[in-house]
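Memo to structure team: turn this sequence into structure tokens by end of day. - J.P.
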Amino acid sequence: MKRIFTICICGSLLLLTGCGKVPTLENGEELVGKIKNKDITVSELYESLKDVYGVSTLVEMIDKTILDDKYPTDDAILKEVDDYVNYFKTQTGDQFLDYIKYYGYGNTEEEFRRTVLYDIKRNKEINSYAKSIVTDKEMNNYYKNETVGDIKVSHILVTPDTNSEMTDEEKTAKEKEAETLAKDIIKKLNNGEKFADLAKEYSDDESNASKGGDLGYFNKGTMDQAFETAAYDLKMNKYTTTPVKSAFGYHIILKTGEKEKVALEKIKTDVIETIAKEKINEENSKVSYEAMIELRKEYGLEIYDDELKNSYNKLNKDLLSKTSK
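Reply from structure team:
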């Protein structure tokens, strides 16, 4: 059973006063500094910082405490951190430290690692929450409208013979040559020539040309979008009557097989994950805010300072009002 946290911003004063001996006034207030005739007390510093940084600091303290409790830092999470940091260092090279400083990720690699660690934990919670709010209606609608059975196709690929040293005019001319050849191959199909024979003769896809262009079975999300759309639009044993342009060149596609889609119960987990990702990534999504707000409630968050409590509630209201879903 999860521990319940009762968290007060006053706890952050430990960060301000430290562990050493702190001088106090006659009334018992601790001092953090002094100038001539002015004593600066912990409570004065607290009130000053509270107005500017109070809510953001409080929320950060709460979230880190909760996330550490719910998602202990194990070897799997540390590997995620390592993988991300190493990738980031590879991308930024010698500018790594300059980059993280400029974008406020910290001044050292260790500070950056801590930022990445809590981003990973936070994303785990957001993903978990997003999956928890997927409804049966959403699953059924997605299954009905978006899921399909596997299909099997063969293709003939004609790739424009271009290179980086060519001018735009030369590249355009090569593109036109490839498209024209693809159209000529379609004419040969119309005249009764066999698809497999033409694939062996003309296809630039060396991985399957010798097999008549056979690509086997696949489902949505596997191929280039234009290729995939054209393939699914075909009827059985029919081929595309115009070349299909993709990032690889021009395709002539023949559908040779199709299967019934898998029952929802067998792919329910995948469907939920897909819908959850859509909820998170859609424009103006509020899922990431809701996830952390609900998690704080789950852990019994109480804020005793009235000003901070009002600021916290206002912050949540503002965040949610700027989002639509």
